[in-house]
Amino acid sequence: MEKKEFRAESKRLLDLMVNSIYTHKEIFLRELISNASDAIDKIYYKALTDENIIFNKDDYYIRIVADKDNRTLTISDTGIGMSKEELEDNLGIIANSGSFAFKKENELRDGFDIIGQFGVGFYSAFMVSETVTVISKGFGSDEAYKWESNGADGYTIEPCKKDNIGTDIILKIKQNSEDEKYDEFLEEYRLRGIIKKYSDFIRYPIKMDITKSKLKEGSEDEYEEYLEEEVLNSMVPIWRKNRNELTKEDYENFYLEKHFGFDKPVKSIHLSVDGVVRYNAILFIPSKTPYDFYTKEYEKGLELYSNGVLIMNKCPDLLPDYFSFVKGVVDSEDLSLNISREILQHDRQLKLMAKKIGDKIKDELSLLLKNERETYEEFYENFGRQLKYGIYSDFGMNKETLQDLLMFYSSKEKKMVTLEEYISRMPEEQKYIYYASGESIERIDRLPQAELVKDKGYEILYFTDEIDEFAIKMLMNYKEKEFKSISSGDLGIETDEKDEEINSEIEENKDLFKLMKEILSDKVKDIKPSKRLKKHPVCLTSEGELSIEMEKILNTMPNNENIKADKVLEINIDHNVFNTLKSAFENDKEKLELYTNLLYNQALLIEGLPIEDPVGFTNDICKLM
Ligand SMILES: Nc1ncnc2c1ncn2[C@@H]1O[C@H](COP(=O)(O)OP(=O)(O)OP(=O)(O)O)[C@@H](O)[C@H]1O
Hints:
By secondary structure, the protein is α+β, with helices and mostly antiparallel strands. It has four domains: 224 residues, 2-Layer Sandwich (Heat Shock Protein 90), CATH 3.30.565; 139 residues, Ribosomal Protein S5, domain 2 (2-Layer Sandwich); 89 residues, Rossmann fold; 131 residues, Four Helix Bundle (Hemerythrin (Met), subunit A), CATH 1.20.120. 36% of the residues lie in helices and 21% in strands. It contains 21 helices and 22 strands. It has an eight-stranded mixed sheet, with helices on one face. The protein has a six-stranded mixed sheet with strand order 15-14-17-16-19-18. Helix 9 crosses helix 10, helix 10 crosses helix 15 and helix 19 packs antiparallel against helix 20.
């Protein structure tokens, strides 16, 4: 029989899996039972929605058989099964999730915690098995097939006999080694324990023959053993259980069982609603950002059940985009089983659920912020960008909902603060909420534009995320306090005295400013004496809605239209440099041109903007030397 090779990446993963030093090898059973349950979900759903299929609830179950003599453990299900092609497509290559492909080959060292990071479903069977045999008959086909592999060098597929639709997975359990005991995976009590721990909430019965003893017939003290089939799981979906009965661990196990993530959720939210629409939901806020979260491939959504039957894997309409990181399940007895995706979108009941779910997530996040600051900050580190995106998108429709969840780094507190905290510390005379944008905290810290605001003792919020300034422009104000960039034209701090001084300098040096403006005519919109600079000689600011930071960001986008902010070069008239400019204007116009260009380029450097003509700039410096 022909042996087929696994694809390259699958082979690498299998090698790792077979030699895995993973300590929780027991999770292979969780993975296989979860696949079995998914397969039954599929046929169960078909049966309920297709009149031609005869429906008998007792036909749907998972069965575990441990055979110590032959060292085999069999997991059978009466699910939808797999055709020959499906066996090949689904088991011959790595899980479609793409999570594995995402990791670069060189990151996959031996001992690398793949399971902890991704969970790899079916393949985990190779952690405990020498050989894995899958016998399956797919729904709608007359033939059954046997897929077999020892992990190392490929797999075989051949026709075989199987009466019913469904799948048997037969594991030939490894021999004990010096460090590893595999026998335990054939022990009744151990299997029972694993199933109770990870798969208690599976909706279908997980059956196994359990050894019991009874008095021998006719004897008063002699016992004999016999086997009796038992259902090992409670089958009540976790979301139907009473919150008080459940522990944190139960929720965490459910999160893992469902593959919502391979981290521990920051928060589990359990909802039981008995209103116009009745439903139960369990929602999770993950602690780690999924690897594809900020990509187009990421799909948001909650698992949607109609009275315990899965009708949609990821129902996007239940979650607003700004909470797209939330995972979980929603089960409602009021939803029709046959509801289609299109109808669902307009469904009033669904809208009511979505509203309540959104509100609840918001409330839980607010509580987290209030009561578990550190955890919230970690959460914000991961998903804060999504919240800010939420403020910006939909024309700011959700800003009221989200504004109190925002945090920014504070120049004064040297840590993340909320807008509410900022406002509560504001001196009475302070008119605006000040912010500064830049690549990093260190860089913003050194911006000359901040001098006046800092001198006044006012707090500045640092915007280091690309979305920050866009979001704030949408927010416009918070509790009636307007946001103000430290680079904007009017800071609202300048004194009348300073204004007078500046006006008289402008008047006195009219021609100097005019000439400098001509020199930089295609580069800046204006040149003027600065009201904000204290120690530094120059800086760039902007006029109008578009800031220099926003210009930078917009120009990194695909199909940018080379949008430019209206830049203003501000000169510190109290700095010695200004005297130098004045004397150059009187005595040597060529020098004035040189100085003007130098100052402009310095200002660009401070802003982190590229110098348009670096060679010209270095030549200018040489001229000075
Ligand atoms: N018992 C089964 N019955 C029917 N199909 C199965 C069974 N076990 C696995 N499959 C099929 O094989 C595929 C691959 O399974 P695997 O456990 O590797 O990944 P997955 O379950 O799709 O993804 P993930 O593990 O990330 O949830 C499944 O998607 C399913 O189509």
